[in-house]
Amino acid sequence: MKVRTLFLLIILGVITVFAALNWNAFMAPTTLSLGVANVQAPLGIIMLGLLAFLSAVFLIFIVSLQTSVLFEARRHARELQANRELADQAEASRFTELRGFLEGELKRQAGFEAESKGAVLARLDQLEQDLRASVEQSGNMLSAYIGELEDRLEKVVQGTTLQSPS
Known about the structure:
By secondary structure, this protein is mainly alpha-helical. The protein has a domain at 59-147. The chain has helices at residues 3-21, 23-27, 43-163, and strands at residues 29-33, 38-42. Strands 1-2 form a two-stranded antiparallel ribbon. The longest helix has 121 residues, at 43-163. The radius of gyration is 58 Å and the shape is rod-shaped.
């Protein structure tokens, strides 16, 4: 129980005890002026009645205020839930869009990689052909030099053989 409620119940209990202890004074008739006429009535009972009426009015006011606050809170909760669902849908759409973008970028990268790989392989094939041609050309030149050296050696050997018998 809240302290406020407990405090109000204590005050109501004190008023009830006070009225019970002074019930004879509450019931004593008194002349009351209503402005245009005078009336004989017990002032204590009238005051207790007014207190009960005022308490009932405040109780009705508090109940209606509490009800309106509850309805407003429920309305806000529904709006909050709707906004949360809308935000979740927007987030899901952003994730879907991001996934599509990433898939596109990955495909583009894969295409670029395949293109680069093809270019590198073509370049390696060209370099291999150039290297083979260079090796073949070097082999031909070497063969030509060796053939020329053999010819010279043969001439030298024939020249020494011709000069030896003398």
